[in-house]
Design a protein that fits this description.
With 263 residues, the chain is α/β, with parallel strands linked by helices. The protein has a single domain, classed as 3-Layer(aba) Sandwich (Rossmann fold). It contains 8 helices and 7 strands. It has a 7-stranded parallel sheet with strand order 3-2-1-4-5-6-7, with helices on both faces. Strand 5, helix 6 and strand 6 form a beta-alpha-beta unit. The longest helix has 29 residues. The N and C termini lie far apart (43 Å).
């Protein structure tokens, strides 16, 4: 089946014509990936909680290609089911799912209560699981052993090393996302690959306060001496979604300027 046919580099990294869903796609890392996918010729669906923001960003990204916004709250199983049903009404198959929607929370240990855990675990771990589960029929319709569908979970270097901040539920949730990635990768092979990207510091709403206070120190502390750019994140996601990334599954890839990998 053309195994020995040399492929051009542009084909190797192409996601042109693929259909993708990026959760939490209106800002931060999700938006970086959504924008990269749109520029690369994919039809991109983005979700976020706020309907107006969703529509606004979809309209903006549609200037470069095709982007459709679907509001969804992925912190409940019902919300995940709703988004999957909405997708099934729009597309017959889904090539790429990026589970990016997430929440964080910081509080001193004695004050770190149930709400601080529930909100973060519900979205960051259960949301990733339930949405992937409900989208399986669409992913299976797109994927084959030869050209698998792709699931990309957004973890964090805080799930690899211990963060400086008191974000207990966040770091625990991201370590869980990395293990869930491996577990699903084994279960869903060979027609679907499941990998995680573990970002380091990038400009996002979640990171805004931290970067404002410590941005220069964080950049200085990274072996590559800067924080991440949108194209760093888009590039990693496009690689995993293209033919070039088709033989990776169950991998957790730190995109972090070397912070976690050289710690």
């Amino acid at each position: 089946m053309g195994h020995n046919v040399p492929m051009s580099a542009s084909d190797l990294f192409s996601i042109n014509g693929k259909t993708a869903l990026v959760t939490g796609g209106t800002r931060g890392i999700g938006r970086m990936i959504a924008e990269g996918f749109v520029d690369a010729g994919a039809t991109v669906y983005i979700s976020s909680r706020k309907a107006d923001t969703c529509a606004e960003v979809a309209e903006l990204l549609s200037k470069e290609g095709t982007c459709i916004g679907i509001p969804a709250n992925l912190s409940t199983e019902e919300g995940c089911r709703g988004l999957a049903e909405e997708m099934a009404g729009q597309v017959g198959s889904l090539d790429i799912l990026v589970n990016n929607a997430g929440a964080t929370w910081g509080a001193p240990l004695p004050e770190f209560d149930e709400a601080a855990f529930e909100r973060v675990l519900a979205l960051n771990v259960k949301g990733v699981f339930h949405l992937t589960k409900f989208l399986l029929p669409l992913l299976q319709a797109a994927g084959s052993q030869e050209e698998p569908a792709r699931v990309i979970n957004i973890g964090s270097i805080d799930g690899i090393g211990v963060p400086a901040l008191e974000t207990y539920s966040y770091s625990a949730s991201k370590a869980a996302v990395h293990q869930l990635t491996r577990h699903l990768a084994k279960r869903l092979a060979p027609a679907i690959t499941v990998n995680a990207i573990a970002p380091g510091p990038f400009e996002s709403k979640m990171m805004a306060a931290t970067l404002e206070a410590f941005g220069e120190q964080i950049a200085a502390g990274a072996p590559l001496k800067r924080i991440g750019r949108p194209d760093d994140m888009a590039g990693a996601a496009i690689f995993l979604s293209s033919r070039a990334g088709a033989y990776l599954t169950g991998a957790v890839i730190p995109v972090d300027g070397g912070i976690a990998t050289t710690r």
